[in-house]
Amino acid sequence: MSRFASLLSWLFDGYWPAEDQHEDLLVRREDVRRRYVATRLLASGDVADLHLATAADEPATTPGAPYLLKVARAPRDNAALDAERRKLTKLLDAAGATTYREYLPALADSFVTAGRFPRRINVFRFKTGFYTLEQVHERHPTLDGRHLAWVFKRVLTILGFSHRQNTVHGAVLPCHVLIHPALHGLQLVGWGHSVAAGRRIRTLPARYQEWYPAEVHCQRPAGPATDLFLAARCLVYLAGGDPVCRRMPQAVPLPIWRFVRTCLLESARMRPDDAWALQEDFDELLLALYGPPKFHELTLT
Question: Both 83 and 187 in a single domain?
């Protein structure tokens, strides 16, 4: 699998690589006279195809393609991409110029093509240096507790923000969490599954159905505790444990495992439901365990 196909799996679920395929794609926004020219088909999924692209009406400022086109495969798939567009627009507006914007994918454009079979296209600005947690796990099957700490803290940061906007992400999974090792940055992507707090999550990524808590499988309302459950499973995964069976390697400090385990309780009512408050408690635990925060390099190249 190419690096781009693996890295950008966050744009849709159930994808498969399309390295040997090519499709000439020229899409046009008639209302603003903008044209996007696809330079490479990266992958194909159940509801969308992903292309690297350039904007034909603006000069290229850096080598390569600065945009990602997420193209609905059929008109029936337009709804999923439109839901993603609406949720990201809401969150980006709420984030404004704050640092929370850096935790979200950069939605640059979204429109429906003209013609007999219109398709929605979501356009994202391409950012280099990010890796999915799947890629991280592939290179480092067991992460040190200090790396687990900064990754989990940043996941809690963006979840706390989205929950304040009454939004449950609904798919906090290794394919949707991207980290930038050199900057200790993080982006949470894949917002097509998100719902308002108290609503049911209707669709689950096929590869990760077993990761979901009971309230989702039983079609009960989802809430912040649902996202925190999935975030905790991501941490177990990065530590080299078994997320589904809730087994953590002995190398992980016991205080961290005890802390994470509170997010994995069967009943949503028994789990934490405030990401920012949980982050404060986690900071106190880490201070006692490791002392003042320090930068710990994580090499993936």
Answer: no
